[in-house]
Amino acid sequence: MSNSVGFPGLGLSFTLNRVAFSIFGQNIYWYALIICFGILLAFLYAVWEGKRENIKSDIFFDILIICLPSAIIGARLYYVFSKWDYYSQNLLQIFNIRGGGLAIYGGIIAAVIAAVIYCRVKKVNMMQLFDICSIGLLIGQGVGRWGNFVNVEAYGYETSVPWGMQIYSDFYGKVTTVHPTFFYESVWNLVGAVLLAVLIRHKKQDGQIFWLYFIWYGIGRFVIEGLRTDSLMFYHLRISQIVAVLSVILGIIMSIYLFLRENKPKNEK
Question: Residue range 167-175: average pLDDT?
Fold first, then answer.
């Protein structure tokens, strides 16, 4: 399960083994370990930032326990529905998560729904919590993309850019140099996490950072998705680009709403 990857323009080459180790004959993949590491970093950041905003760490434990399985289910369902022509004929494969097939947007949507329900039931300040968690999410997404690197997936079209990634591509059926789109999104997400981590210290209202996440991630995902060869499609449209556009629009509308509410004259009813 090894893959050879090179960056000729940078003089770098790697032999990547997808399997990290085995337990009782069961392979444990680097992809899963990297995803878990990203989740851990996101959680630690949330707890650390939560202390500054007087949010008990127990709340973040609850959110992790509730939202993580929700995200996995949502990510799987999103992927399955996008490829329903196949799964409708192979129903048992719906449960074969180890065979691959998780879509991040589905995971985010399901996790948000689960978190909303939790906050309503526990009477937690939802938007304050979402501001912190959105930064943690960018951290997790930024780190998690390196799992795609080990799997040699989520790459882009052929390119001649100096940082192009040389691989054997099933898409092209040959050794070729492609856009390392996993890297583009990793950098975009981590830069966004840093920017939002700075801005959260200066926010005027709860929710501002959460909606900025929608805008930041949506813009980056729309552009980067256009370079990928493995996009989920709806007719001739890339599903992730559709969702990205909707995310940016929603983020802008809600950001304007918060701005207008903040600057509303005090004597206006």
Answer: 87
Rounded Cα distance between 180 and 8, Å, is 13
What's the rounded Cα separation, in Å, for the pair 73 and 239? 18
Say if CB 238 and CB 231 are below 8 A apart.
yes
Q: Is residue 114 a contact partner of residue 67, using CB atoms and an 8 Å limit?
A: yes
Q: Could you give the CA distance from residue 7 to residue 104 in angstroms, rounded to a whole number?
A: 27
Minimal CA–CA distance to 100: which of 125, 76, 120?
76
Pick from 200, 255, 193: nearest CA to 220: 193
Burial class of residue 14, CB neighbours in 10 A (0-12, 13-18, 19+): middle
Q: What is the pLDDT of residues 13-61, one digit of tens each?
A: 999 999 999 998 889 999 999 999 999 999 999 999 999 999 999 999 9
pTM for the structure as a whole: 0.90
pLDDT at 269: 47
